[in-house]
Structures are given as C-alpha cells and as structure tokens.
Amino acid sequence: MATVLYDYWRSSASYRVRIALNMLGEEYEIVPVDLLAKTHMSAEHLARNPQGLVPALHIDGRMLTQSLAIIEYLEETRSAGFLPEDAAGRARVRALAYAIAMEIHPVCNTRVAAHIVELTGNGDVARKAWMQKFIADGLRAFEAMLDDGGGTGDFCHGDRPGMAEFCLVPQLYNARRWEVDLSGLERMQRIDRNCSEIAAFDKAHPDRLGPPPLNS
C-alpha cells in the first residue's frame, strides 16, 4: 500500500517527517491538511489522528502520528541511521531533538499562539512577541547544548545529519519567518547551511510545497 503523508506545508512537525522520508528515498504522496481552514478538525482527519494534528503518516499498512515517533519508527524499521549507534550518542541526539520538539514547539504551536492573541486582544503584535521570545530562548539553549558532549562536527552530532537536524532546520525556518534575532548562534546556522546543500532537506522545504489548494 502506498505511503501517504497528511501534511501542512508550514508545519514544523510535518517538515521534519518530509526530511526523514526524503533522506530514506521513500516514495510518498502528500495529502494537504489545511490548518488555517481547520481541516485538521474534520471528522475525516480526526479518524486519522484523534489529536487533530499533523503529520499523520500511513505507511506499512498502519497510521502513525507524532513526528518523532514516526522518525524513530523509520529508524527502527529501515535501519535509517537517524540516531548514532552508541547509547550516549543516541541520548545526546534525542536531547537536542527534544529541546526543540518538546520545549520550543509546544509553546509556539499555532493553537497556542492563537489563544495568546485571544487573551491579549493585541493581534499580530502579541503573537510575534510571543514567538520571538520563546524561539530565541530555546535556540540559545540549543546552541549551548551543541557545546556539551563533544559530538558537534559538520552537523549536530558528528558528520552526518539525523533526528536533531530534522528538528533544527524547520525551527530555524520558523525563527526567520518570525524575525527572531539569530546573532551569536553560529554553530546552528552553520549546520543549517550544511543541511541546505543536501537534496533531501531542500526538497522538504515549505517553499517547495506552498500553501494547499483552496479546495483541499
């Protein structure tokens, strides 16, 4: 059965999974789920993912949700090399990935930002200030984490990209979108540039997809 990714073009979590699938050379179809049109809350999508989130990946006859769970499934079933072979290395890469996916992303989720706007009544000003604060704080911590453990090379851990980069690159895309000050974050920006030269990352970039059709 075909591999299908239920995806929103600007979703960081979906972006992570696109990179992972591309790195594997896995053929997949993208079915857009328009978050702005609230398609993710339709009965059809809730049947795929009761949380009403993206991505959802139909692969190997099963439906998977949560981007890092999907990436680890690909790692375990395809010997993907997204995590180092040693336990200490795996722990370090997971910590880097989680610092973004479990610390920055949840508070900068579209739903959370929309609620902040509701509470403050200050529209885009409040949303942008919120995003800039929490993305900047999280990325500064991530940059410091790259110094810890001695594993940083051309990429976050050694000389090949993996799960940490799958989280970092989409987060930096969001940081630039929200005009976050990235000065002083030289290591992660160098890693991001290295990733941009890899076809699997370039192909997954939101600008390659664009927004979903109006009738999606």
TrEMBL record:
Residue ranges occupied by any GST C-terminal domain in the UniProt entry: 86-214
MF (Gene Ontology): maleylacetoacetate isomerase activity
EC number, UniProt record: 5.2.1.2
Keywords: Isomerase
Record-annotated GST N-terminal domain positions: 1-82
EC class: isomerase
Transmembrane segments annotated in the record for this chain: none
Superkingdom as given in the UniProt entry: Bacteria
Entries under Gene3D superfamilies matching the protein: 1.20.1050.10, Glutaredoxin (3.40.30.10)
InterPro entries: Glutathione-S-Trfase_C-like, Glutathione-S-Trfase_C_sf, Glutathione_S-Trfase, Glutathione_S-Trfase_N, GST_Zeta, GST_Zeta_C, GST_Zeta_N, Thioredoxin-like_sf
Family: Belongs to the GST superfamily. Zeta family.
NCBIfam families documented for this protein: maiA (TIGR01262)
Protein name as annotated: Maleylacetoacetate isomerase
Organism: Chelativorans salis
Gene that this polypeptide is encoded by: maiA
